[in-house]
Amino acid sequence: MTDTRTEILHKNYEAIHRNGFQGVRADKVVAEMGITKGALYHYFPNKFDLGYAILDELLGPHYLKIWQSFERAEKNFGVVLLEVLESYRDFAKTDEEIKLGCPLTNLTQEMPPLDEGFRKRLHRITHQMQLQIETGLKNAQLAGEFKLDFNPTQTAFFYLSAIEGGFSVAKAMQSRAAFEMVIAQLKQFSEGLKA
Asked: How much of the chain exceeds pLDDT 90, in percent?
């Protein structure tokens, strides 16, 4: 059974995904859950503490899990990379998901100029994702499966930027096809990295 704190986190995460951090009233969300405002403030003294917990406990672990298999791969790097890219389609498989956009991208566009706590956490998540991709690329080069004529750091930034940018463009255009094109192009690009 889910405890009250976890339930508050999940429901507010859903509300933030729909309305943005600034557009959410956490007390209203918990009231709809049948939980008192006092219970909310027992766990989270203010809205920013709630937002930080969502980043630290839900969003961060979720996004860092995406690239884990590529970072930890020991062989068949090309296959694993394509599997990771293909898994991104799950984030954009419905019109509603395209309409709402990527939670990480949305918060990255909304909050860093407004709050240092958000900025630091979002930086940490995206930087760790970039390092995961970079590690996988370097290991693939060391294993002789990928060419040596590309810079793993720059290429990792390219993957991350293309994916997150693809989410933004798809959201603006309300087009799943736009996001599909980004993934298809990244898969084609990935084939060109193979030795």
From this structure: 83
Angle ∠(91,32,47) on CA atoms, nearest 5: 70
Judged against a pLDDT cut of 60, whether residue 1 lies above it is answered with no
Q: What fold is seen in the domain 1-44?
A: Arc Repressor Mutant, subunit A (1.10.10)
Cα separations (Å) of 26 from 36, 56, 67, 110, 127?
A: 11, 17, 31, 17, 28
Would you put residue 146 in left (φ > 0), alpha (ψ -120 to 50) or beta? beta
Q: pLDDT tens digits for 71-99? A: 999 999 999 999 999 999 887 788 888 88
> pTM, whole model, 2 decimals?
0.93
Q: Which pair of tokens denotes residue 170?
A: 């798809």
Euclidean distance between CA atoms 187 and 189, whole angstroms:
5
Phi and psi at 194, nearest 5°, equal -65, 145
DSSP string, 126-162: HHHHHHHHHHHHHHHHHTTSB-SSS-HHHHHHHHHHH
Judge whether 92 and 167 are in contact, CB under 8 Å: yes
In the chain, CATH 1.10.10 covers: 1-44
Supply the CATH classification number for the domain 55-191. 1.10.357.10
CA distance 172 to 17: 15
